[in-house]
Specification:
homotetramer; about 400 residues; alpha+beta; Chorismate synthase, AroC fold; 5-stranded antiparallel sheet; lyase (chains A, B, C, D); EC 4.2.3.5 (chains A, B, C, D)
C-alpha cells in the first residue's frame, strides 16, 4: 500500500485518504467511487446493522475537469455523527469488550478513546473502499481487469463444502465455472447475503437471522476472483503477489485467515494432481485487452490460483478470506473491568451487525485492487526500463541446459 | 521486513543478507546462527532430499569482538555448487515445470535462468533463516520471547483434525496445552517429521514415504506459537500484526494459506463462544521478563491467537501455514513446451523432496522473528516518544462514557 | 518524511495532510497549528503578495477532547478560490513560464493543469507547515527543542557577508551568539523581512522594494537553528541527519542550495582550525530537559553545525537554504510557446511576490521539525531496544586500542 | 536509494551491497564495475593517502553468463586488513577525534568500535561506488546518459571564482561550455587533482601539498554534470530530483553543502536574468537516444541546472558539493578525553589524506547514478501505466485558460 495513506476514527470530523501515484489522464469523478461506498454501507437489509449512514465521498484534489492530473488524490467523507455518544450503557466504559480492540489499543497507546477502539472502527474501511474504487477504475480501463468478491460461507453453511474426496474447491468444476462467469451485478442479486446461489444464500440468511435473534454473531468467508491480470506481476521473494494480497486481506478488520488457489485443502492433494499442466494459450485469451504481450501458455487446471512462485501467470487469481464472528454482541458476557479489579456482565445495547461478510465484499475488492495496482506499477517500471536496453550481443550458450530445483 | 534485504540464486557464488537496525551491544557470533541453518538443511533423513549441503554462515560486518555494533550485519553462505549442471534431462530445458516458477519468471523478466526459476530456489530461504536467527537472539535475550514451529498435518493426516463440534483447534484443550509447553528440543525429538506426537508423526512419516515411493509429492501445514510477546505490538490498520505475519508467511516458497488464532474454523463458532473474556492477569504472568510493564488483564480463552484489532494482547500468538505439494516430481507429467508449440512428457530426474513441511519449520520461525522484531522496534519508538511528554494538564471529562462499535 | 503524506493544488477543493506516528497523549488543538499557518500566509506586508488568504486549519482526526490518540492526524485547509480563474492573460495559456514548473509538469504527466504547474503551487506548502507545527509541539514539550529560522540574505545584501579572512559565518562570534539567543518573537519584530538586524533588514527591504517596482524578483537565503537536540540522532550512512535535512529543504519550492555548519565557506578553512575540539559539557547544558542522558562532552567551536558523521552531538544544529528569485514576474520575457512553434513575449499580470524568503521562514522551520521528529523516533526505537538487553558478559579486551581513520 | 542496501566497516571481513531492481537482460561483469572502484582507491598519487588497497569487486548473484537476471545483485569486496590494529597511538583510544564520528557513534550506539567510527569509515563508500557503476552501465546503455564529476575548488583556489558581477558560474560561458564537453577521460588527465584546468589544477596541487606538509588538511568542492537525462524525472513535492540528489550527496562522508544550477550565487541574480527562456529544441537534441519522446522545447540558458519544479527539463543537470577538510590530521590538537575528565593533546600518527576531493569524484558520480536510476524507474512506471489508458473522451474546455502562480 505504498501509494495510499488514510485517517479517521468513528467519531472524528471526517475519514479520508490520499492516493499517490494514480496515472494522469484518466477520467475520474465522485460517480466512479460512490457505488462501492454505497455497497459498503450498513443498513442495506434487515440482517445488517440498521443505522443509516450517508457516506458521500468528495474528491479534494488531484483531478481537474474530471481528469486525473497525476498528483495526489485527496478523498474525504464527513462523519455525520461526530461526537461521542452515550449508548446508554455505562458498563461499556468500565469493561473492555472481549475480543475487541478496546483493550489492546489502550495497551498500545496508553490513551483510551471514548469510542472504545477509536481507530479500530469499521469506519476506517471507508478510505480503503474509496481508494480501491480509483484503482479499480484504472485496472478496468487500462487492462480490462475485473475484480469480484462474494460470500462462500456463513457459519457452517458452505457454498462449496469440502469433502474428503474434494478437500479444496479448486478441483470442483462448478466452482471454476463460477469464477469465470461471476460479476458484481450477479452478486448483488443475492442481497442481503451476496452469495451467488439461491439455495446456499437462503440457508445463510436463515443462519444470520438466527444469530441476530439470539443477540449473538457468526463468522463466514468471502471468496474473490481477479480476472484478466497480465502475467509477470508480483515480486519473487518478499513481495510475492500472494504475500501482498495476504497482507492486505489480513489488514481488514475481523479477518482470521487467507488462502489462495487450492489453499489449505490443496495440502491434501498429491503433487501429480495438484500441478497445473501448461497448454498453449488460445489466441483470444489472456492479456489481449491489456496492451501487454499475450502469453503463449496457459494452464489446464488452476490449483495455483493464478500465481506461481509469487508471480502471476495470466490465469484468474482467486483467494478466500475468513471473517470471525463480530465481537460486539447483545448477548451478555462475563468479563473483567479495565483495571482488572472485578468481573461483571457486559451486554452491548443497540443493534449490532450479526455477521460482517456481506458488507466485507466491497472491502475485499478494494484491497485487491490496491494490491494489483501496486504490483502493476512495479512491473511497468521493469518492463519500461528493460525496453530501452539494446539487444544482447552475447547469446546464452546452447549447452546451458542444466535445470535444478535448488534447495 | 524493512530491516532486511537479501540476495542469491541456486547456482551463484553465494547467498546472503544484510540486517539493518539490530540493536547494538548484543553478543553475537556465527554459533548463534548456525543451528537454525542446520535445521533448514536438506538431507536430514531418508524422507528429505539427500543432497548434502554445508551452509556455513559467515558474519561479514556489524560485530566486533563478538558484540553487535548497531551497524548493518552482513551474512554470507557460499554456494558449493556454483555452476549450472546438467541433471541429465534435456526435456527440463524445453518444458517449464508445471506449478513451478520457471514460466512466470520468464514472463516477468524475459530472461531464462539456466536453473529454471533461479531466484525462486529454496536456497533463497538461507538468508531468511540467518537473519531470523539474529532477531530471535535479541527477542529471547531482551524479552524472553520464544518461537516454536512444528508440523500439524501432512496430506490428510492431521494432528488435530477438525470436527463439526470442534471446527478449530483453538477450542481443543490439548492443543492449547501443547502451545504452552512445546519447545524446539521437543520438536526435534520427532525428526524426521517434526510433529510432536508419536502417533501422528508415525502416520505422517508413512504418508510421506508412500508419496516418495510413487515419485509423487504431498503438502502439509506448520503451526507456530510465539510466547511472551509484550502487549501493544502491531499497528492498527495496514500493518496489523496478523497482516505482517501473513505477508511474511505467504512470502515463503510453496505456501498456500495462513490462519491465526481460531482461523477458518473460527468462522463457524458463535461470537458468544468465540469471544475471549478478560480476566485479571496473574502476578507472575505476562511481560515480566520483558522489562515492559506487565498487563493487568489476560484472556480466559485464546481464540484471538494473541492479537486483537491487529495489536498483541500478551497471550501466546499462534498461527498455521499451508504448504502445497512440491511441484518438482519424478512422476511423469504431460505439459507444453516454452514456446507452446508442442506438448510432451516431463519427468524430473534425481531425487526430490516429497514434502517440505519438516524443513519449513525453521523458516517459519525465522520469518516470525523478523516480523515480531519490526513491530517491537516500532512500538519502542512510540513508547520512547510518549515517555518524554509531560503529564496531561487536562483530564478526560468524566461524562465521556459513550462507546460505539463504529461502522 | 515517512510519517507524512499530503495533497493539494492551487485551485482544488482543499489542501491537506495526514500525519502518522504522532505520539499519543499530547495536548493538541488547532490553536497549536494556526500561528505558523498565519506566518506562512501571503499578504503580510507591502512587499509580499497582497492576495488575502484565510488558511484556517481543521483537525479531521487523531485527537479527542484535545489530546492525541496516537492514530493518524488528518489536517485540512479549504481553498477559498477553488475554480481556475482567468488572470486576464491569454498568453500565459500559450507559453510555459520560464523557470517555472509549467513545462516540466506537462512533460512528466502529459496533462496540463489549468493552473499551470498545479501541484507545484506554493499552496502545497500549507500541508507541510501544518504537519510541522504538530511535530514542533512535540519536540518542544518533550525535549525542549526550539527551531528558529530567519533571513540572512536578500540578493547581494548579506547579514554576515563572507570575507577572505572569514569565508564562513561559523567562525564569526556575532553569528554564533545570534544562534544562541534568537527566537521567533524576535524574528517577527523584523517584519516584513524577518532578518534580525535593524541595519541589514532595512537594506533588504529596500532591495526587495526595488525589484518589486521593476516588476522583477530577487532571491535570498534563510538560516535555521535547532537548539536542544539530543545527541545520537541521524543514521550513519544514507540517512545522515544533514542528508535528510538537505532532502527536506531542497523539496521546498524555489530552493537552490543547502549548507550546514561551516558549509561551502568551510572548505576554505584548514582542518586544524575547522576541527571542533571537545570540552567537558557544563552540568546545566545539553539534553537535560529532554529526559535523555546528558552528554559528557560538548565542543568548543561549532563548525560541525551540531552534526558529526551524520549524527547529532548535542550542539546547536544550523544550516542555510538558498531560494532563487521567483519565476513569475511582471517583467516581459521572450520565450517559446508550448508547441515550440513560435516565440513571443510573456508578462504576468497581477501582483507577484518579488522575494519569497520572508514567507519561507515558517516552511523551513516546519520541514526541520519533521526531519528531527523522524530521526528522534528512529533513535527512540534503538535506545528502547537496547535498554532491554542484559549487560554484556564479555568485556572488550583492553588491548583493543587500535584506531584507524579508514579509507 | 530504495533499491540499494549496503554493509561494512573498516576492519570487518568484507564490505558489500545488494542492488535490487536492476533491469534484466543487461550485460554485466566485474569489468564494468572495477574501473570506478579503482578510481576511488587511495594511494593514487603523492597527495593522497599512500596505503595500498586492492578493492577487487566480486559479483555474488543476480547475473548468469554475464547477463543480469533481474534478481538482486550481491556485490562484495574483501577487506584485506580485517583486524583492528594498533596505530601506535594510545591517545587515540582515549580521545574522540575532533570533528570525527568517534564521539557521536558512541553517543548513538553506546558501543565503541575499536576502529573509532567503525561504520563512518571511508570504506563504506566502496559499496556505493560499486552499486553506482551498475546503475551507470544501465543509464549509458539505455539512455546515453553520461555522468562526469570534477574538482572545482580546493581551499580558496577556485576554477571559477565568484565575482560580484558573476556570483554564480551558471552565467559563465566557459563553465557552460565545459559542462557540455567534459568527460571522465579528460578529468583523469588532470590527476592527481582531477580539476580539468592546467592552471587551476597546478595551484590546487600546490595547495594540497602545502597542507600535507603541515600535517594539516583542506576542503574543496566537486561539480558534477549529468547529460542526456530525459525530461520528466523527479517527483513534484518531497522527492524533487534536486531533493533526492541533495540527500544522496549529503550522505557522502565529509560533505557540508549542495547547490544545483545557479545555486547560492543565483540568489543574487534578478529573476529577469535568472529565468531560462524556452526555445524550440533542435531536431538532433534531447532524449533522442533514450527511446523516450524528444522534448519540443529546451532552454536558452540553464540557471535551472536541468531541473524545474523538481522535474527534469532535458537540459544538463549540474550541481556542486562541498567537502570539509578531513578531521584526522597529524597536527596536534587539544581536546577532551571520552569521559570528559581531562584535556590533552591528540596527534594522529601515520599519513592521512590532506584533501578528499580528488577521490570523492567517483563517489559523487556513483550517488548521482543511483538517484537518476530511481527517478527513472518511477517515471517508467508512470509512463507505462498511462500508456494503457484509452484516449480521453472528454476534452479540456477551451475556456480553461486561467493561470495562477498559486500561493
Amino acid at each position: 500500500m505504498s501509494t495510499f495513506g488514510h485517517y479517521g476514527e468513528s467519531h472524528c470530523r471526517s475519514v479520508g485518504c490520499i492516493i499517490d501515484g494514480c496515472p494522469p489522464g484518466m477520467e475520474l469523478t465522485e460517480a466512479d467511487i460512490q457505488p462501492q461506498m454505497t455497497r459498503r454501507r450498513p443498513g442495506q437489509s434487515a440482517i445488517t446493522t440498521p443505522r443509516n449512514e450517508k457516506d458521500r465521498v468528495q474528491i479534494q484534489s488531484g483531478t481537474e475537469f474530471g481528469v486525473t492530473l497525476g498528483t495526489p488524490i485527496g478523498l474525504m467523507v464527513l462523519n455525520e455523527d461526530q461526537r461521542p455518544k452515550d449508548y446508554g450503557n455505562k458498563t461499556m466504559d468500565l469493561y473492555p469488550r472481549p475480543s475487541h480492540a478496546d483493550w489492546t489499543y489502550l495497551e498500545k497507546y496508553g490513551v483510551k478513546a471514548s469510542s472504545g477502539g477509536g481507530r479500530s472502527s469499521a469506519r476506517e474501511t471507508i478510505g480503503r473502499v474509496a481508494a480501491g474504487a480509483v484503482a479499480e477504475k484504472y485496472l478496468k480501463l487500462a487492462h480490462g481487469i475485473e475484480i469480484t468478491a462474494f460470500v462462500t460461507s456463513v457459519g457452517a453453511v458452505h457454498m462449496f463444502p469440502p469433502t474428503p474426496e474434494m478437500p479444496t474447491p479448486s478441483q470442483n468444476p462448478d466452482f471454476l465455472k463460477l469464477l469465470e462467469t461471476i460479476d458484481r451485478e450477479t452478486v448483488d442479486k443475492f442481497l442481503p447475503v451476496r452469495c451467488p446461489s439461491e439455495e446456499a444464500s437462503k440457508r445463510m440468511e436463515d443462519c444470520i437471522s438466527e444469530f441476530r435473534d439470539k443477540e449473538d454473531s457468526i463468522g463466514g468467508t468471502v471468496t474473490c476472483v481477479i480476472k484478466n491480470v497480465p502475467s509477470g506481476l508480483g515480486e519473487p521473494c518478499f513481495d510475492k503477489l500472494e504475500a501482498t494480497l495476504a497482507h492486505a486481506m489480513l489488514s481488514i478488520p475481523a479477518t482470521k485467515g487467507f488462502e489462495f488457489g487450492s489453499g489449505f485443502g490443496g495440502c491434501e492433494v498429491p503433487g501429480s494432481v495438484h500441478n497445473d499442466p501448461f497448454i498453449r494459450a488460445p489466441e483470444s485469451a489472456g492479456a489481449g485487452s491489456s496492451g501487454l504481450p499475450r502469453s503463449k501458455l496457459t494452464t489446464k487446471t488452476n490449483n495455483s490460483g493464478g500465481v506461481q512462485g509469487g508471480i502471476t501467470n495470466g490465469a484468474p487469481i482467486y483467494f478466500r478470506v475468513a471473517f470471525k464472528p463480530p465481537a460486539t454482541i447483545g448477548h451478555s458476557q462475563t468479563t473483567a473491568t479495565y483495571d482488572g479489579e472485578e468481573e461483571g456482565v457486559l451486554a452491548a445495547k443497540g443493534r449490532h451487525d450479526p455477521c460482517v461478510v456481506p458488507r466485507a465484499v466491497p472491502i475485499v475488492e478494494a484491497m485487491s485492487a490496491l494490491v494489483v495496482m501496486d504490483s502493476l506499477m512495479s512491473q511497468m517500471a521493469r518492463i519500461g526500463a528493460r525496453s530501452h536496453l539494446p539487444p544482447l550481443k552475447q547469446t546464452i550458450p546452447p549447452s546451458s541446459n542444466g535445470v535444478s530445483s535448488g534447495q
